[in-house]
Write a structure and sequence with these properties.
Layout (H helix, E strand, L loop, with lengths): L2 E14 L8 H12 L5 E14 L3 E5 L6 H8 L7 E6 L3 E4 L12 H11 L4 H15 L14 H14 L4 E4 L8 H16 L3 E5 L3 H7 L2 E6 L2 E7 H16 L4 E3 L2 H4 L4 E9 L8 E3 L4 E9 L5 E9 L4 E6 H5 L9 E6 L7 E15 L4 E18 L27
Parallel strand pairs: 3-7, 3-8, 5-6, 6-7, 12-18
Antiparallel strand pairs: 1-2, 1-4, 8-9, 10-11, 11-13, 13-16, 14-15, 14-17, 17-18
Length: about 425
Protein backbone atom coordinates (compact mmCIF):
# COMPACT_ATOMS: atom_id res chain seq x y z
CA UNK A 1 0.00 0.00 0.00
CA UNK A 2 1.19 3.51 -0.85
CA UNK A 3 2.92 5.50 1.92
CA UNK A 4 1.46 9.01 2.34
CA UNK A 5 3.31 10.10 5.51
CA UNK A 6 6.86 9.12 6.41
CA UNK A 7 8.39 10.48 9.60
CA UNK A 8 12.03 9.74 10.37
CA UNK A 9 13.80 10.67 13.64
CA UNK A 10 11.64 13.78 13.93
CA UNK A 11 12.58 16.16 16.77
CA UNK A 12 11.41 19.61 17.79
CA UNK A 13 13.10 21.79 20.41
CA UNK A 14 11.62 24.92 22.00
CA UNK A 15 13.34 27.52 24.12
CA UNK A 16 11.67 28.20 27.47
CA UNK A 17 12.20 31.02 29.93
CA UNK A 18 11.99 34.79 29.56
CA UNK A 19 10.81 36.17 26.26
CA UNK A 20 13.51 37.83 24.19
CA UNK A 21 12.78 41.37 22.93
CA UNK A 22 12.57 42.02 19.20
CA UNK A 23 15.87 43.35 17.80
CA UNK A 24 17.28 44.65 14.55
CA UNK A 25 19.36 42.38 12.32
CA UNK A 26 22.49 44.28 13.38
CA UNK A 27 21.75 43.70 17.09
CA UNK A 28 21.03 40.02 16.45
CA UNK A 29 24.40 39.55 14.73
CA UNK A 30 26.29 41.34 17.51
CA UNK A 31 24.56 39.48 20.36
CA UNK A 32 24.25 36.05 18.72
CA UNK A 33 27.26 34.44 20.42
CA UNK A 34 26.61 36.15 23.75
CA UNK A 35 23.06 34.80 23.89
CA UNK A 36 24.26 31.36 22.89
CA UNK A 37 26.48 31.24 25.96
CA UNK A 38 23.87 32.41 28.46
CA UNK A 39 23.57 29.88 31.26
CA UNK A 40 19.92 30.52 31.99
CA UNK A 41 18.78 29.46 28.51
CA UNK A 42 16.63 26.36 28.85
CA UNK A 43 15.16 24.14 26.17
CA UNK A 44 12.52 21.45 26.00
CA UNK A 45 12.15 18.71 23.43
CA UNK A 46 8.50 18.66 22.39
CA UNK A 47 9.35 15.72 20.09
CA UNK A 48 12.43 13.50 20.15
CA UNK A 49 13.41 10.86 17.56
CA UNK A 50 9.85 10.10 16.41
CA UNK A 51 9.62 7.70 13.45
CA UNK A 52 6.62 6.03 11.77
CA UNK A 53 4.92 5.50 8.41
CA UNK A 54 1.26 5.88 7.50
CA UNK A 55 -0.30 4.23 4.48
CA UNK A 56 -2.99 5.64 2.22
CA UNK A 57 -6.48 5.19 3.66
CA UNK A 58 -5.36 4.50 7.23
CA UNK A 59 -7.13 6.13 10.18
CA UNK A 60 -4.59 6.81 12.92
CA UNK A 61 -5.36 8.01 16.44
CA UNK A 62 -2.72 9.96 18.35
CA UNK A 63 -3.04 9.80 22.12
CA UNK A 64 -1.01 10.87 25.13
CA UNK A 65 -1.16 13.21 28.13
CA UNK A 66 -0.99 16.99 27.82
CA UNK A 67 2.52 18.02 26.74
CA UNK A 68 3.25 14.71 25.01
CA UNK A 69 3.89 16.42 21.64
CA UNK A 70 0.65 15.55 19.81
CA UNK A 71 -0.17 19.05 18.56
CA UNK A 72 3.49 19.77 17.73
CA UNK A 73 3.52 16.68 15.51
CA UNK A 74 0.42 17.83 13.60
CA UNK A 75 1.87 21.33 13.20
CA UNK A 76 5.01 19.91 11.60
CA UNK A 77 2.95 17.68 9.28
CA UNK A 78 0.84 20.74 8.37
CA UNK A 79 4.01 22.75 7.60
CA UNK A 80 3.09 25.33 10.24
CA UNK A 81 6.39 24.83 12.03
CA UNK A 82 9.68 23.22 11.07
CA UNK A 83 11.41 20.36 12.90
CA UNK A 84 14.72 20.88 14.69
CA UNK A 85 16.04 17.52 13.50
CA UNK A 86 14.80 14.71 11.29
CA UNK A 87 12.20 15.05 8.58
CA UNK A 88 8.58 14.39 7.66
CA UNK A 89 7.51 13.58 4.11
CA UNK A 90 3.83 14.16 3.29
CA UNK A 91 2.36 13.18 -0.07
CA UNK A 92 -0.95 14.75 -1.06
CA UNK A 93 -3.21 17.67 -0.23
CA UNK A 94 -3.48 18.25 3.54
CA UNK A 95 -6.53 19.60 5.32
CA UNK A 96 -6.00 20.45 8.97
CA UNK A 97 -8.06 21.55 11.93
CA UNK A 98 -5.72 22.47 14.76
CA UNK A 99 -6.10 25.44 17.12
CA UNK A 100 -9.25 27.56 17.03
CA UNK A 101 -8.86 30.31 14.44
CA UNK A 102 -5.82 28.93 12.60
CA UNK A 103 -6.17 29.55 8.85
CA UNK A 104 -8.88 32.20 9.25
CA UNK A 105 -8.37 35.93 8.79
CA UNK A 106 -10.32 37.69 11.57
CA UNK A 107 -11.24 40.73 9.46
CA UNK A 108 -12.73 38.64 6.63
CA UNK A 109 -16.24 37.21 6.66
CA UNK A 110 -17.03 33.52 6.85
CA UNK A 111 -17.77 33.52 3.12
CA UNK A 112 -14.46 35.19 2.27
CA UNK A 113 -12.53 32.81 4.52
CA UNK A 114 -14.01 29.79 2.74
CA UNK A 115 -12.62 31.09 -0.57
CA UNK A 116 -9.33 32.08 1.06
CA UNK A 117 -8.83 28.57 2.49
CA UNK A 118 -9.69 26.98 -0.84
CA UNK A 119 -7.20 29.21 -2.64
CA UNK A 120 -4.49 28.32 -0.10
CA UNK A 121 -5.11 24.65 -0.93
CA UNK A 122 -4.56 25.42 -4.61
CA UNK A 123 -8.22 25.14 -5.63
CA UNK A 124 -9.78 27.18 -8.41
CA UNK A 125 -12.84 29.34 -7.82
CA UNK A 126 -15.06 26.95 -9.79
CA UNK A 127 -13.99 24.07 -7.55
CA UNK A 128 -14.76 26.10 -4.43
CA UNK A 129 -18.15 27.14 -5.84
CA UNK A 130 -19.12 23.48 -6.25
CA UNK A 131 -18.38 22.74 -2.60
CA UNK A 132 -19.64 26.01 -1.13
CA UNK A 133 -23.25 25.01 -0.39
CA UNK A 134 -22.17 21.69 1.17
CA UNK A 135 -19.72 23.51 3.46
CA UNK A 136 -22.31 26.01 4.64
CA UNK A 137 -25.01 23.39 5.13
CA UNK A 138 -22.73 21.10 7.16
CA UNK A 139 -21.51 23.97 9.36
CA UNK A 140 -25.09 25.28 9.88
CA UNK A 141 -23.75 28.83 9.52
CA UNK A 142 -26.02 30.38 6.87
CA UNK A 143 -27.01 33.36 9.05
CA UNK A 144 -23.42 34.34 9.86
CA UNK A 145 -21.67 33.90 6.51
CA UNK A 146 -21.29 37.62 5.88
CA UNK A 147 -20.13 38.43 9.42
CA UNK A 148 -16.38 38.95 10.08
CA UNK A 149 -15.11 35.86 11.85
CA UNK A 150 -13.56 37.94 14.64
CA UNK A 151 -17.10 38.12 16.03
CA UNK A 152 -17.56 34.31 15.94
CA UNK A 153 -17.66 32.26 19.11
CA UNK A 154 -15.15 29.41 19.49
CA UNK A 155 -17.86 26.92 18.59
CA UNK A 156 -18.73 28.82 15.39
CA UNK A 157 -15.05 28.91 14.41
CA UNK A 158 -14.82 25.15 14.79
CA UNK A 159 -18.00 24.46 12.84
CA UNK A 160 -16.83 26.42 9.84
CA UNK A 161 -13.19 25.36 10.06
CA UNK A 162 -13.99 21.66 10.20
CA UNK A 163 -16.49 21.92 7.38
CA UNK A 164 -13.94 23.71 5.20
CA UNK A 165 -11.17 21.21 6.02
CA UNK A 166 -13.37 18.15 5.41
CA UNK A 167 -15.22 19.26 2.25
CA UNK A 168 -12.25 20.42 0.19
CA UNK A 169 -11.44 16.73 -0.36
CA UNK A 170 -8.01 16.56 1.27
CA UNK A 171 -5.91 13.47 0.71
CA UNK A 172 -4.88 13.72 4.37
CA UNK A 173 -7.01 15.20 7.16
CA UNK A 174 -5.35 16.25 10.43
CA UNK A 175 -7.72 16.90 13.33
CA UNK A 176 -6.65 18.03 16.78
CA UNK A 177 -8.59 17.94 20.07
CA UNK A 178 -10.08 21.29 19.03
CA UNK A 179 -13.26 19.33 18.20
CA UNK A 180 -13.96 19.29 21.95
CA UNK A 181 -14.91 22.97 21.59
CA UNK A 182 -18.09 22.22 19.64
CA UNK A 183 -21.35 21.00 21.11
CA UNK A 184 -21.85 17.25 21.48
CA UNK A 185 -24.22 16.88 18.52
CA UNK A 186 -21.75 18.62 16.20
CA UNK A 187 -18.89 16.48 17.51
CA UNK A 188 -20.87 13.38 16.53
CA UNK A 189 -21.56 14.93 13.14
CA UNK A 190 -17.81 15.53 12.66
CA UNK A 191 -16.94 11.97 13.66
CA UNK A 192 -19.49 10.71 11.15
CA UNK A 193 -17.95 12.88 8.44
CA UNK A 194 -14.45 11.63 9.25
CA UNK A 195 -15.75 8.07 9.03
CA UNK A 196 -17.18 8.74 5.57
CA UNK A 197 -13.88 10.36 4.48
CA UNK A 198 -11.95 7.24 5.46
CA UNK A 199 -14.34 5.03 3.49
CA UNK A 200 -13.39 7.08 0.42
CA UNK A 201 -9.79 5.94 0.90
CA UNK A 202 -8.46 9.15 2.43
CA UNK A 203 -6.04 9.26 5.36
CA UNK A 204 -6.97 10.71 8.77
CA UNK A 205 -4.81 11.57 11.80
CA UNK A 206 -7.01 12.23 14.82
CA UNK A 207 -5.73 13.61 18.14
CA UNK A 208 -8.10 13.13 21.05
CA UNK A 209 -8.37 12.43 24.77
CA UNK A 210 -11.69 10.69 24.10
CA UNK A 211 -10.73 7.02 24.02
CA UNK A 212 -14.22 5.93 22.96
CA UNK A 213 -14.01 8.14 19.85
CA UNK A 214 -10.50 6.84 19.11
CA UNK A 215 -11.64 3.23 19.37
CA UNK A 216 -14.72 3.85 17.21
CA UNK A 217 -12.88 5.70 14.44
CA UNK A 218 -9.26 4.53 14.36
CA UNK A 219 -7.72 1.22 13.34
CA UNK A 220 -4.30 2.02 14.77
CA UNK A 221 -2.97 4.31 17.51
CA UNK A 222 0.30 6.15 18.11
CA UNK A 223 0.85 6.71 21.84
CA UNK A 224 3.16 9.67 22.59
CA UNK A 225 4.74 10.20 25.98
CA UNK A 226 7.12 13.11 26.75
CA UNK A 227 7.80 13.69 23.07
CA UNK A 228 8.65 10.07 22.28
CA UNK A 229 6.66 7.17 20.89
CA UNK A 230 5.59 4.91 23.74
CA UNK A 231 3.78 2.37 21.57
CA UNK A 232 2.12 1.89 18.18
CA UNK A 233 -0.55 -0.75 17.68
CA UNK A 234 -4.20 -1.67 17.42
CA UNK A 235 -6.51 0.98 18.85
CA UNK A 236 -8.44 -1.31 21.22
CA UNK A 237 -5.26 -2.73 22.77
CA UNK A 238 -3.30 0.52 23.03
CA UNK A 239 -6.18 2.62 24.42
CA UNK A 240 -6.94 -0.01 27.06
CA UNK A 241 -3.29 -0.09 28.13
CA UNK A 242 -3.18 3.73 28.16
CA UNK A 243 -6.23 3.94 30.43
CA UNK A 244 -4.85 1.28 32.77
CA UNK A 245 -1.57 3.19 33.06
CA UNK A 246 -3.49 6.39 33.84
CA UNK A 247 -5.34 4.66 36.69
CA UNK A 248 -2.14 3.09 38.05
CA UNK A 249 -0.26 6.38 37.88
CA UNK A 250 -2.85 8.59 39.55
CA UNK A 251 -4.68 5.98 41.58
CA UNK A 252 -8.41 5.79 42.06
CA UNK A 253 -9.61 8.84 43.97
CA UNK A 254 -13.05 9.26 45.56
CA UNK A 255 -13.00 12.93 44.46
CA UNK A 256 -12.53 14.15 40.91
CA UNK A 257 -12.37 17.80 39.81
CA UNK A 258 -12.05 18.69 36.14
CA UNK A 259 -9.16 20.87 35.06
CA UNK A 260 -9.54 24.04 33.01
CA UNK A 261 -8.53 22.32 29.77
CA UNK A 262 -11.39 19.81 30.05
CA UNK A 263 -14.06 22.48 30.49
CA UNK A 264 -12.62 25.09 28.15
CA UNK A 265 -15.34 26.77 26.05
CA UNK A 266 -18.16 24.87 27.78
CA UNK A 267 -21.11 26.96 29.00
CA UNK A 268 -22.68 24.46 31.41
CA UNK A 269 -20.76 21.43 32.57
CA UNK A 270 -19.87 18.87 35.23
CA UNK A 271 -17.19 20.29 37.51
CA UNK A 272 -16.82 17.86 40.41
CA UNK A 273 -17.91 14.37 41.45
CA UNK A 274 -17.48 12.49 44.73
CA UNK A 275 -18.27 8.85 45.48
CA UNK A 276 -19.64 7.70 48.88
CA UNK A 277 -21.07 4.65 50.56
CA UNK A 278 -24.51 4.82 52.16
CA UNK A 279 -22.96 5.76 55.54
CA UNK A 280 -21.48 8.94 54.08
CA UNK A 281 -17.88 7.69 53.80
CA UNK A 282 -15.74 8.76 50.85
CA UNK A 283 -14.40 5.55 49.31
CA UNK A 284 -13.64 3.77 46.05
CA UNK A 285 -13.78 0.12 47.13
CA UNK A 286 -17.18 -1.50 47.66
CA UNK A 287 -18.76 -4.88 48.33
CA UNK A 288 -21.04 -6.30 45.66
CA UNK A 289 -24.14 -5.75 47.82
CA UNK A 290 -23.40 -2.13 48.85
CA UNK A 291 -25.13 0.98 47.59
CA UNK A 292 -23.04 3.67 45.87
CA UNK A 293 -23.81 7.38 46.03
CA UNK A 294 -22.47 10.07 43.70
CA UNK A 295 -22.42 13.76 44.65
CA UNK A 296 -22.16 15.88 41.51
CA UNK A 297 -21.51 19.61 41.17
CA UNK A 298 -22.18 21.59 37.99
CA UNK A 299 -20.96 25.03 36.93
CA UNK A 300 -21.90 27.59 34.30
CA UNK A 301 -25.27 28.87 33.14
CA UNK A 302 -28.16 27.32 31.25
CA UNK A 303 -31.60 28.77 30.48
CA UNK A 304 -33.66 25.59 30.25
CA UNK A 305 -34.11 22.44 32.29
CA UNK A 306 -31.56 19.66 31.98
CA UNK A 307 -31.26 15.96 32.75
CA UNK A 308 -28.41 13.60 33.54
CA UNK A 309 -27.31 10.14 32.41
CA UNK A 310 -24.72 7.97 34.15
CA UNK A 311 -23.17 4.88 32.61
CA UNK A 312 -21.04 2.14 34.15
CA UNK A 313 -18.27 0.46 32.11
CA UNK A 314 -16.04 -2.47 32.99
CA UNK A 315 -12.28 -2.54 32.36
CA UNK A 316 -12.87 -3.77 28.80
CA UNK A 317 -14.94 -0.63 28.13
CA UNK A 318 -18.15 -2.60 27.81
CA UNK A 319 -21.14 -0.61 29.05
CA UNK A 320 -22.93 -2.72 31.64
CA UNK A 321 -25.57 -0.24 32.83
CA UNK A 322 -27.07 3.12 31.89
CA UNK A 323 -29.19 5.18 34.27
CA UNK A 324 -31.09 8.28 33.13
CA UNK A 325 -32.96 10.86 35.18
CA UNK A 326 -35.45 11.66 32.41
CA UNK A 327 -36.04 8.35 30.64
CA UNK A 328 -36.22 6.20 33.78
CA UNK A 329 -37.53 8.64 36.39
CA UNK A 330 -39.13 11.49 34.39
CA UNK A 331 -36.80 13.82 36.31
CA UNK A 332 -35.59 17.11 34.80
CA UNK A 333 -33.62 19.62 36.84
CA UNK A 334 -34.19 23.36 37.16
CA UNK A 335 -31.31 25.53 35.80
CA UNK A 336 -30.70 26.93 39.30
CA UNK A 337 -29.96 23.46 40.71
CA UNK A 338 -26.24 22.76 40.48
CA UNK A 339 -25.81 19.97 43.03
CA UNK A 340 -27.15 16.52 42.18
CA UNK A 341 -27.07 13.23 44.08
CA UNK A 342 -27.31 9.85 42.34
CA UNK A 343 -27.86 6.69 44.38
CA UNK A 344 -27.58 3.22 42.85
CA UNK A 345 -27.09 -0.34 43.99
CA UNK A 346 -26.62 -2.88 45.28
CA UNK A 347 -24.62 -3.29 42.09
CA UNK A 348 -24.29 -7.10 42.24
CA UNK A 349 -21.05 -6.68 40.30
CA UNK A 350 -18.19 -9.16 40.54
CA UNK A 351 -14.69 -8.17 41.70
CA UNK A 352 -13.02 -5.75 39.29
CA UNK A 353 -12.47 -2.13 38.26
CA UNK A 354 -15.27 -0.01 36.83
CA UNK A 355 -15.63 3.54 35.60
CA UNK A 356 -18.55 5.95 35.50
CA UNK A 357 -19.34 8.25 32.59
CA UNK A 358 -21.59 11.30 33.10
CA UNK A 359 -23.68 12.86 30.33
CA UNK A 360 -25.46 16.20 30.55
CA UNK A 361 -28.44 16.89 28.28
CA UNK A 362 -30.45 20.07 27.98
CA UNK A 363 -34.20 20.47 27.62
CA UNK A 364 -36.91 17.99 28.39
CA UNK A 365 -36.53 14.70 26.57
CA UNK A 366 -38.92 14.27 23.67
CA UNK A 367 -40.23 10.76 24.24
CA UNK A 368 -42.10 10.76 20.92
CA UNK A 369 -39.01 11.50 18.83
CA UNK A 370 -36.27 10.38 21.22
CA UNK A 371 -34.46 13.67 20.57
CA UNK A 372 -31.56 14.35 22.96
CA UNK A 373 -29.30 17.40 23.01
CA UNK A 374 -26.04 16.60 24.79
CA UNK A 375 -24.03 19.55 26.08
CA UNK A 376 -21.33 17.81 28.14
CA UNK A 377 -19.82 14.34 28.41
CA UNK A 378 -17.39 13.47 31.21
CA UNK A 379 -16.10 10.17 29.92
CA UNK A 380 -13.86 9.25 32.87
CA UNK A 381 -15.80 10.98 35.62
CA UNK A 382 -14.81 8.61 38.41
CA UNK A 383 -13.64 5.04 38.97
CA UNK A 384 -14.56 2.51 41.63
CA UNK A 385 -13.73 -1.09 42.47
CA UNK A 386 -15.69 -4.05 43.71
CA UNK A 387 -13.30 -5.61 46.22
CA UNK A 388 -15.50 -8.25 47.84
CA UNK A 389 -17.98 -10.59 46.18
CA UNK A 390 -18.81 -13.69 48.22
CA UNK A 391 -22.56 -14.23 47.76
CA UNK A 392 -22.62 -17.98 48.35
CA UNK A 393 -22.05 -20.27 51.34
CA UNK A 394 -18.57 -21.39 50.20
CA UNK A 395 -17.29 -17.77 50.33
CA UNK A 396 -15.91 -18.22 46.82
CA UNK A 397 -14.88 -14.80 45.47
CA UNK A 398 -16.52 -14.06 42.12
CA UNK A 399 -14.24 -12.10 39.78
CA UNK A 400 -14.64 -10.28 36.48
CA UNK A 401 -14.08 -11.66 33.84
CA UNK A 402 -13.51 -15.21 35.13
CA UNK A 403 -16.98 -15.52 36.70
CA UNK A 404 -18.87 -13.00 34.60
CA UNK A 405 -19.94 -9.46 35.45
CA UNK A 406 -23.05 -9.81 37.62
CA UNK A 407 -24.07 -11.95 40.57
CA UNK A 408 -27.22 -13.95 39.88
CA UNK A 409 -28.52 -15.97 42.79
CA UNK A 410 -28.75 -19.68 42.04
CA UNK A 411 -29.23 -23.03 43.80
CA UNK A 412 -28.71 -26.68 42.92
CA UNK A 413 -31.08 -29.54 43.95
CA UNK A 414 -31.42 -33.25 43.58
CA UNK A 415 -34.14 -33.79 41.00
Amino acid sequence: METVIKVEKLSKKYRIGERLPYKTIREEIINFFKRKKKKNDQFIWALKDVSFEIKKGEVIGIIGPNGAGKTTLLKILSRITEPTDGYAEVYGRVGSLLEVGIGFHPELTGRENIYLNGAMLGMKKKEIDKKFDEIVEFAEMEKFLDTPVKYYSSGMYVRLAFSVAAHFEPDILLVDEVLAVGDISFQKKCLGKMDSITKEGRTVLFVSHNMSAIRALCEKVIWLEKGKIEKIGRSDEITREYEEKFIQKYGISPVRIRNDQEIKYKKFYFKKVEIYDENGNLKTGFKFDEKIILHIELEGEIEEKYHIVFRIYDKNNIMIFSGASAELHNKNFDPKIKKIKIEFGPTNLTIGSYRIELILRKGKIQFATGERIEIDIWENAINFEITDCKPFETNWQLQNPRDGIFVIKNKFYNN
